[in-house]
Amino acid sequence: MSNKYTSPSLQIARVNNSSEDIISSENWFTELDRLNSVLRAKPLEKGKDYRPVNIAILDTGVRPQFEDLVEDYKDFITENDMDFIDEEGHGTYAVQLIHKANNKAKIYVGRVFKHRKADENTLSLMTQAVRHATLKWRVDVIVMPSGFQSESEDMIEAIEEARWTLTRLA
Question: Over the Cα atoms of the chain, what is R_g?
Fold first, then answer.
């Protein structure tokens, strides 16, 4: 059974499936496209200070067929920045999702995971990547679609440095 309800600014299709509500991602993106068409700066509104948002994705990399969506790529595992790699697909999905949400964004990818689970080097690589994204790529947003079971003082410090630097640059 399908019904529609309206919130103040967004209409979402809801489907009743065994007493669970499922919101269609396609409908969500359709609404996002409509919202973006209103909010995105028009060519005549773009002044000399306009620039697209710069987003870093620190994950499993990106597959070669999507390299045209990427402004810059750095492989912190192999240190071979010429070959786009994503053995898991997780980073590639993140690139596709961000591109679909904002196709004007400049996307930077740092490969810090070889597989889905972190290994003994991943925290250190992620820390390096956060600093690289902040200081070299000078991104506005850092996406880290991952979690760790332990804390790292160095990682916390890198994130604090990024937060301070990105706030200061804004």
Answer: 19
User: Between the CA of residue 162 and those of 71, 98, 104, what are the distances in Å?
Assistant: 20, 20, 23
61 residue type, one letter? G
How is residue 116 written in tokens? 């889905």
Minimal CA–CA distance to 152: which of 160, 163, 143? 160
- For the beta carbon of residue 20, count every other beta carbon within 10 angstroms: 7
Please provide the distance, in angstroms rounded to a whole number, between the alpha carbons at the two ends of the chain: 47
- Quote the CA–CA distance of 132 and 57 in Å, as a whole number: 12
Q: Is the dihedral of CA 75, 115, 138, 161 positive or negative?
A: negative
Q: Is residue 151 classed as helix, strand or coil in its secondary structure? A: coil
Q: How many CA atoms lie within 13 A of 85 on its CB side?
A: 16
pTM: 0.75
Ordered by where they begin, the domains of the chain are 1-39 (no CATH), 43-169 (3.40.50.200)
- List of residues 6+ apart from 123 with CB closer than 8 A: 148, 150, 152, 154, 155
Q: Burial of 59 by CB count in 10 Å (0-12 exposed, 13-18 middle, 19+ buried)?
A: buried
CA nearest to 59, candidates 127, 162, 122, 145:
145
pLDDT in tens, 135-165: 999 999 999 988 777 788 988 899 999 988 8
